[in-house]
Design goal:
Layout: E1 17-21, H1 30-34, E2 38-43, E3 49-53, E4 58-64, H2 70-85, E5 91-96, H3 111-117, H4 121-139, E6 143-148, H5 152-155, E7 161-163, E8 196-201, H6 224-228, H7 234-240, H8 245-255, H9 261-266, H10 269-285, H11 290-294
Parallel strand pairs: 1-2, 1-5, 2-4, 5-6
Antiparallel strand pairs: 3-4, 6-8, 7-8
Helix pairs in contact: 2-4, 2-10
Amino acid sequence: MDNAGIDLEDIKMAKGIVISLYDFTGEALKPWAEDGYECYAYDIQHKGTMEVFPDSGGSIHYEHADLHDHNSLNQIHDDFYTRQMDGGPPIVFGMAFPVCTDLSVAGSSRFKSKAEKNPSFQTEAVSYAMWCAKLFNSMHIPFFVENPVSVLATKWRKPDHYFHPYEYGGYIPYDQMNHPRWPEYIAPRDAYKKKTCLWTGNGFVMPTKVAIDPEAYHGNGYSTQMMKLGGKSQRTKDIRSATPRGFAIAIHDANKVEKTHEEDWCDDLELRLEEEARLQEWEENYLWTLETAEEFI
C-alpha cells in the first residue's frame, strides 16, 4: 500500500483497522480516525495520499483502486491478510458505497437503452456490490453495503435497514452544522430526505436515530444537492453520493470496539491462535472471479 512517504512507525498503535470501499470523500471514516483507528478509503479517484489525526493517532489512507476489477479486491484481501499474520491491528469494521448508476430505480428509464448496449450491465453492477460483502464476510467483520433504493433488493436480497440523512442529523454538533466541503449544496446538519438502504452482516449494529426537522432549511425536506445539481460530471456524482456526516458519526458510535489492540490481541495467546486459524480459513476461501460472484444472483 502506498502511504505517500509517511513513516507508519511514527503513528501510534491503532485501535483497529476500518476499510471503506468506493469512498471518495473519506467522510464515513473521519469519526473512526478521530478516535484512533487506522482507516483505508479505496476509490478509483485516489492517488495514494494520507491524512493523519495527531490528537488520536488515527489516520485515513486514500488508496487508488479499480474496485470493478476483482483483482483489486483480491489484492486488498492479500494486503490485510499479510498484516494480520504479522501481528498487525485487527480489522474491526467494513463499509462500501458501490456505484449506483446502473442500480438506482431513479435511473430506471435508462435501463432499457443500457441493456441494448450491454445485456449484462446490471448483473455486473450487482456483482460489484456483492463482492464488497464477500470481502467483509471473509474477514468476519461487521459491515454495511450502502445504496439508494435500487434493484439490489430484487437481484441480490432485501435491505436490512433503511434511513434518511436527517434522521441522524442530531449527531452533528451545532458548531459544525455547515458541511465542511460543500455547504452550498448539502443542508446544515444533514437536514434532508434521501431514502437509503443498507445491506449488513456479522453483528453490524444499526445506530439509534436522533432526527432533526428535514424541512428546516428548505420547504419539502428533499435534498438540496439533488435540486441544484444536474449533469453527469464526477463532481456532481461525488456531491450527490457524499456520506451524511451524522450517519457516519452514529455508525462509529454504535459499532466501535472498546478494547485497544494491545489489551485485546497482543497479550492474549489463545485469542491470537484462534485468529490465526480464522485467517488461514480466510486465505483458503476468499479468492473469486466475476463468474463465481454471479452464481449468487
